[in-house]
Design goal:
mainly beta, Porin, 18-stranded antiparallel barrel, 2 helices, 54% strand, globular
Amino acid sequence: MKTFIVIIFLTGLLYPLHLCAQLEEEGGEFSIDMNLRPRLEYRNGYNYPRQETDDASAFISNRARVGMNFDNGFLSARVAAQDISVWGQKTQNDNDGKRFTLNEAWAQMNHKGYFVRIGRQPLNYDDGRILSVSNWTPSGIWHDALKLGYENDFNTLHLILAYNQSKELTNAGTYYDAVGQPYQNMQTVWYQYHNTTGFTASALFINLGFETGDPNAVPLVSDKVYMQTMGTNIGYKTSIWHIMGTAYYQTGKNVSNQEVNAYMLALRGGYTLNPFFSLYGGTEFHPGQDPNSDKKTYMDLLYRSNHSFMGSMDYFRGNDPYGVFDKYVGLKWKAGKKLGLDLGYHHFTSHQPIIVDDAERKLLGSEIDFTFTYPIRKYIMLEGGYSFMLATDAMPIAKGRPGNPGAWQDWAYVSLTINPTLFKGRF
């Protein structure tokens, strides 16, 4: 397995050099961009139910990014740095820098539909349910990887390879102390077919290698287990309606050395009533732990954009032991030339029964989400929202925090995103 990975890695490096010998570009386009996003959040039952004695929290998080880009048709590259903090968290003469990092640093070579990209890069596929840039979180998600691909008008094929170590080792094996990425190695294949009629179909396969060895053994014991995640997204879209179905299956062994046999299903769609109003709705089913199985039967959705699914209050992430069945509907309203409004309703039930006062329950609660967006300029976006959860007495048990189910649970945010291109030119 190791030899195969090395061969693929070297092939990926040598192939673009062969292309480079055949094609030479002069000059190129250079640009500098900035992303600044302060966000005020009020949390009073966000993520899990609060108890009556819990106090609400409020803070302002901030993300500041600066990126440099180059593109001459054959070679493209991006380097971007970011600083993540909460207002008041850092001293005025901060020397720590733990939350300042390069979130992107990659170069890509292109030739007749083929490309090779190497370095620190975001991975975002389909709707971001499994692999996503996770833009909602201040830090986002990135991977140190080699990506090879081919794209034309109807087909897109990507191969991603990653191999991680926590430091440079000499005569010490390959044990990975997961201080950075949660996996030791990754092999991913993604394919999508799309045509001019609006039909799309994609397939994703991910093989993840996790370290389960003993770091205290002498010599170091490096034992790896592998978990496979595979699935598909199939959809159709016209000018007034769209529909998408999703299915994923997971097997192998996870980072805790548990055998896995899990799946999830989703169906969603939308319909445009007129230029001002549109409807959307869907359902998601994430089974919980089967009490009759010695395998883990609820999925790990890996490196996803969680905030995009199952409600804005982020109560459910797909990896819930009781499972979750989410049914939702919503209305979008374009109020005026710029203001956009969105009102959504989620109804949550569990897959496995929950024992409450010696009775089996499955109803968890309902969530109402309201959001607005207002583009002040094309590079300045103001947005915000308010959500509240009407939880049943089964919800605190499902979330592992038994308490008073009658406590009011709500959450709100206001965010300003500023992302101008500071400089753009050719040379």
